[in-house]
């Protein structure tokens, strides 16, 4: 490489903004989409961590109240039919059905326990849909963005070869900027995909543990009601 070519190559700006500005329209669109996908993924990750932390804290508080020995009817009256906590809503659904399962004379209607268990299952399903909502977007971002970045890379390299052919020059000053722009698209694709995949797996595990706690509570509560029905 002669000194003139080396001097020209050293003067090329390889900063992110310079690479973005020199990129073709298609590659710029790909970069913008990948940056937006990365921001979207991080917003979901942060929001889910806040939601899951709140859900675990609410469950711990409710468990203390539930096992404190306070009568269930009083606990339900204090919480109301539509409490804020997720596990509290499962409890409220069961207690609401429990009270509906008594006739005007106070006698228990047959198959009450089956209806109560179904009410809790419906409430758990509703909470599961809310807790796991948007996790699918993380999976999509993690699986799609590398290929979107690769598409941008292919387009960028094609443009570099076209420029080489037009200028009839294969020097570093001609090749390097286009290759750098193309590889930036791949880097942005990985920047969006890697956190999305990692945190999708971690958040899914946390969500499954929270829902497992709800199901365990429903089973314990069903056992308590079964004892009362058999007594």
Structural account:
The chain has about 230 residues and is mainly alpha-helical. Helices cover about 85% and strands about 0% of the residues. Helix 6 packs antiparallel against helix 8. It is rod-shaped and about 95 Å long. The chain starts with a helix and ends with a helix. About 0% of the residues have low confidence.
Summarize the structure.
This protein is mostly helical. It contains 8 helices and no strands.
Radius of gyration (CA) equals: 29 Å
| Low-pLDDT residue spans | 5-9
Residue-averaged pLDDT, rounded?
85
The string of secondary-structure elements, in order, is HHHHHHHH
Tell how many strands the DSSP assignment holds.
0
How are the secondary structure elements laid out?
Elements: H1 3-10, H2 16-22, H3 25-66, H4 72-79, H5 86-100, H6 112-132, H7 135-167, H8 172-230
Helix pairs in contact: 1-8, 2-8, 3-7, 3-8, 4-5, 5-6, 6-8, 7-8
List keywords for this structure.
single chain, 231 residues, mainly alpha, 0% strand
């Amino acid at each position: 490489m002669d000194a003139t070519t080396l001097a020209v190559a050293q003067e090329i700006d390889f900063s992110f903004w310079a690479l973005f500005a020199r990129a073709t329209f298609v590659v710029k669109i790909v970069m913008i989409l990948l940056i937006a996908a990365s921001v979207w993924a991080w917003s979901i990750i942060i929001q889910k961590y806040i939601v899951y932390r709140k859900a675990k804290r609410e469950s711990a508080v409710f468990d203390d109240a539930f096992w404190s020995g306070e009568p269930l009817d009083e606990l339900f009256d204090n919480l109301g039919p539509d409490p804020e906590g997720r596990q509290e809503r499962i409890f409220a659904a069961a207690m609401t059905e429990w009270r509906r399962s008594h006739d005007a004379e106070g006698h228990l209607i047959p198959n009450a326990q089956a209806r109560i268990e179904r009410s809790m299952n419906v409430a758990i399903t509703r909470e599961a849909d809310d807790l796991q909502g948007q996790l699918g977007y993380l999976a999509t971002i993690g699986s799609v963005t590398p290929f979107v970045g690769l598409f941008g890379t292919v387009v960028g390299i094609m443009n570099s070869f076209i420029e080489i052919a037009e200028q009839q020059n294969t020097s570093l000053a001609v090749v390097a900027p286009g290759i750098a722009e193309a590889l930036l698209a791949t880097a942005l694709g990985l920047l969006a995909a890697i956190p999305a995949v990692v945190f999708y797996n971690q958040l899914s595990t946390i969500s499954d543990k929270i829902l497992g706690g709800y199901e365990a509570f429903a089973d314990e509560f069903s056992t308590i009601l079964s004892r009362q029905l058999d007594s």
